[in-house]
Input
Amino acid sequence: MVFRARPIRRALSLCITCLLIGGALPQVAQAQPDAVQAAKSSVAAEIRAQVGGKYKDFYGPRGYWPLWVEQDRIGPQADALLAMIEDSEADGLDPHRYDSRNLKRLIEEADASATPKALARVDLALSRSFASLVADMRRPVRGVTIRYLDKEVEPRDADPSDILRSAALTPSLTDYIQTAGWMSPLYMRLRNARANYLKKWGDLPDILVPEDVKMRPGGKGADIAALRQRLGLADGDTYDKALVAKVRAFQTDHGLKPDGVAGAMTVAALNQGPARYERLLSLNLERARLLPGPWTRNVVVDAASARLWYYSKGALDGTMKVVAGAKESQTPLMAGMIRYATLNPYWNIPPDLVERKVAPKILNGGSLKAMHYEALTDWSANPAPLAQSAIDWDAVAAGRQEVRVRQLPGGDNAMGRIKYMFPNDLGIYLHDTPQRELFAKEDRHFSNGCVRLEDALRLGRWFFGKLPDADGDAPEQHVPLPQAVPVYLTYLTAVPTAQGVQFLPDVYGRDGE
Output
């Protein structure tokens, strides 16, 4: 008998992700007709007889109720799984590892016989293949590293029962599979954008375009003929409307000003060749693979694009601009748990800034008090004040002596009104800022490594349900979050857009070029 695939629903929504979570098991549908209930009970009895190992940890607590059977047949979620398996090369995986041919044969046999034994056999086989696929897609690969600050965010080999339990808890297993709900939305959007990019630009002729001539619309010549060939247009030597549109599209997808003019930067990007861009897409896809999913509440900061996203309950809750570290004071790749907020914060000025910025002002007649600063004896939690006159500012300015200086809370404080803390030895955190003008800039790499928030109060309301109130003007009021929230600081120089993918400048030089 020839296998006939049932219709496969296409995913139209943004892809969402999931950290493997536990929780209450779904209730067996009480309202199903008695005949269907009886049939499923028979399948459950067969699953109980056949299941073993770690899969028993999933099926046992749910009364061995099937995950893939609907109305005496294998449901559409199986078709979604088969489609995901067939497309798993996009994730750097081998589709043959998940034995889709055998799954199709088992589904065919179960559909033909509809016996509880056959249905149980295929239910277990689908669960095994699904658990393997999810674990492999989530597993980090070598070559991309991130520093994990807390046990809660460290990657671990997922247990099949946890993978299946997370899937069973979703409102629609079919939708969960079609959208790869166990993966980051940034990963899935970039994965899809990568496939579309390679179709659009990957197969074009890899030839060099002359770099010593600026080619403009309306022009004509051999250089323009080479440009047309590189972009896959019909033979010719005229810079016509079709070429303008193609150049503009290339510029948009490669982070260049989309003016349709093949200037030096555009020609240089074209001459990098498709292999370079495929490598960058693969590299950034692996960076995105490390990110968590929105079924667990989490925050993601991308230092390359200077943007933040926050997720919960399987959906994107919001996004905002940020200011990330400058090239000389980079925002690191790290993940940790945001555990508390600090109201009316101090700003502990980095020693290099005290040397370069503060000490020269003092030597030129300035005062700490006028600048709303204070000096301290040490870096402990309860330091004593240190008089300005007791400090050798010449030695500080020369880098021979270090002194702790902090900015007092207030309207001009660099931390703004609130900061969100995920304890680490680098002094990196998310915080408010009075420098609102920086968010209007396209390039927002100005900080000393911390992440300045466009709307710190909105994020605070998301963390707490409502913005916590300060108890008067006292400085450094710490308020624990109701529940610690994972935060991931990543670096994506290729990002998904509504039009496809955009390549961003490698500000930190991390792309290995």
Observations:
- The first strand starts at residue 69 and ends at 70.
- The chain is about 35% helix and 15% strand.
